Amino acid sequence: MTYLTGFHAIEERIKSGYSCGPLLVAKAGPRAREIVTLAINNKIRLERTGKFDLDGIAPDNRGIALQVSEHGFSNDSRADISLDTFLAGLTERRDALVLILDEITDPHNYGAIIRCCDQFGVDLVISRNRRNAKHAAIISQTSAGAVSWVAQAEIANPVRALEDLKEAGFWIYGADMKGEPVYKKDLKGRAALVMGGEGNGISRLLREHCDAMVGIPSSGRIDSLNVSVAAGVLLYEIRRQRG
């Protein structure tokens, strides 16, 4: 099983209504007691345990730990959705925003990106199944619980996903430090942003399916921004253009 230990991660998981529990409680301080009350109000089962035992199960705990499925959020979360279902639900909506993650392997980056998606109104995050970061506890903690709210779709064929998005009227933009400055592009309407993995960037096949490449002008002395920071900057610009 997987255990969430961050206060925000536990709190948002409980609030979301997704399956979880029990909440393991050792020596709880004021903040942890607030979460215990939240769990009781949401009918989450409590289990009292000793601090030594809890440290053995969830070393990073601060007096409490919430048990979730060992598969993280892939099997029991209403935030998970298929791409087909997402596209079918758009109807006449013209301003949808999708983020495609091409083999993001660091769970801290993955969680930070999900947090940005929550802040900047991303409608769907698409990732390749089995090949992206899937460490539920780290992702949930790094995202401050946003993973419980951001819609996500796992796909087997990213190229096919881009083709489906194009058929639905999406323009596909790839993130590349040599791309056209992002603020010069009109990013309103249905848009999908592709973020490449750490080190290798966007894979060749996905790059070939992008309509344009966009970048973040910089004057730094190192090669590029961290992928989660870059995602935040690019998503902010899209959000800014859409008012």
| Beta strand % | 15-25%
Write down the overall geometry: elongated
Mean pLDDT: 88
Give me the secondary-structure category: alpha/beta
Topology, number of strands = 10
Largest sheet: 6 strands, parallel
H-E string:
EHEHEHEHEHEHEHEEHEH
| Spatial extent as radius of gyration | 19 Å
Helix proportion range: 25-40%
Number of helices: 9
Are there runs of 5+ residues with pLDDT below 50, and where? Answer: 71-78
List the strand order in the largest sheet.
Answer: 7-6-5-9-8-10
Q: How widely separated are the two ends?
A: 42 Å
Give your account of this protein's structure.
With 243 residues, this protein is an alpha/beta fold. The chain has 9 helices and 10 strands. The chain has helices at residues 7-16, 30-41, 51-57, 83-88, 107-119, 136-142, 158-167, 204-208, 227-241, and strands at 2-4, 23-25, 46-48, 64-68, 97-102, 124-128, 152-155, 171-181, 191-196, 212-215. The strands form 2 sheets. A 6-stranded parallel β-sheet has the order 7-6-5-9-8-10.
State the main characteristics.
243 residues; alpha/beta; six-stranded parallel β-sheet; four-stranded mixed β-sheet; 9 helices; elongated
Short précis:
With 243 residues, the protein is α/β, with parallel strands linked by helices. Helices cover 35% and strands 21% of the residues.
What's the layout of helices and strands?
Elements: E1 2-4, H1 7-16, E2 23-25, H2 30-41, E3 46-48, H3 51-57, E4 64-68, H4 83-88, E5 97-102, H5 107-119, E6 124-128, H6 136-142, E7 152-155, H7 158-167, E8 171-181, E9 191-196, H8 204-208, E10 212-215, H9 227-241
Parallel strand pairs: 2-3, 5-6, 5-9, 6-7, 8-9, 8-10
Antiparallel strand pairs: 1-4, 2-4
